[in-house]
Write a structure and sequence with these properties.
The chain is of the alpha/beta class. The chain has a single domain, classed as Spore Coat Polysaccharide Biosynthesis Protein SpsA, Chain A. It is built from six helices and eleven strands. A hairpin with a 2-residue loop joins β8 and β9. α4 packs across α5. The longest helix is centred in the last third of the chain and has 14 residues. It starts with a strand and ends with a helix.
């Protein structure tokens, strides 16, 4: 089975203050750590801001992203060969993802799942709020925090994106099209770089990993 990865690095970093995927982290860019995790993939498409689409990167294809995350994934999908069997999607802002996470998600799809996500249990109490007041306390036993990488049967992912939906992750796109997505264990250290302080945390975790 041919496995390709789409690494989404097209964000402007509005909350961070600048494109965080190009920030230095432990001697490399955040983006470089994220690319290194996809070791088991046969090919990689990197989706970047349009201003960086001509830059040389250590991948098979570099394409310009869109204004939304889902649009950027679709730009990446257009560059994935038609004969790919499994497509993994990973956010460049998660530099601590490991090859083992990619392998676990891909293995679930190879075993017959239409999609697979990495996720960890929610440990905080979660409440739904409406008009500034608590409307409901959710049962965290049934909740998980979802990460990337996520892996999908290529035909399923392409069909789900054909309707040009918008969602915060590709699992939601596949779910909305009626696909079944399974869960594999994530990694609590697979944090998403959102604020500048997250870089310091990521650097400490990488040092511990070494």
């Amino acid at each position: 089975m041919s496995v390709w990865a789409i690494v989404v690095a097209a964000g402007s970093g509005s909350r961070f203050g600048k494109p965080k995927q190009y920030e230095p982290l432990a001697g490399q860019r955040v983006l470089d750590w994220s690319l290194a995790a996809r070791a088991s993939c046969d090919g990689v498409v990197l989706v970047v801001p349009s201003s960086r689409a001509d830059a040389a990167e250590p991948v098979d294809a570099v394409v310009a992203g869109a204004e939304t995350r889902s649009g950027s994934v679709r730009a990446g999908l257009a560059a994935v060969p038609d004969d790919a069997d499994v497509i993994a999607v990973h956010d460049a802002a998660r530099p601590l993802a490991t090859p083992a996470l990619f392998d676990a998600a891909v293995a679930a799809v190879r075993a017959g799942a239409q999609g697979a996500i990495c996720a960890v249990p929610v440990t905080d109490t979660v409440k739904r709020v409406a008009d500034g007041a608590v409307a409901e306390t959710l049962d965290r036993r049934h909740l998980v925090a979802v990460q990337t990488p996520q892996a999908f049967d290529a035909t399923t992912l392409r069909a789900a994106h054909a309707r040009n939906p918008e969602a915060t992750d590709d699992a939601a796109v596949v779910e909305s099209a009626g696909g079944r997505v399974v869960v594999v264990p994530g990694d609590p250290h697979n944090l998403k770089i959102t604020n500048p302080d997250d870089l310091a945390v990521a650097a400490a975790l990488l040092e511990r990993r070494r």
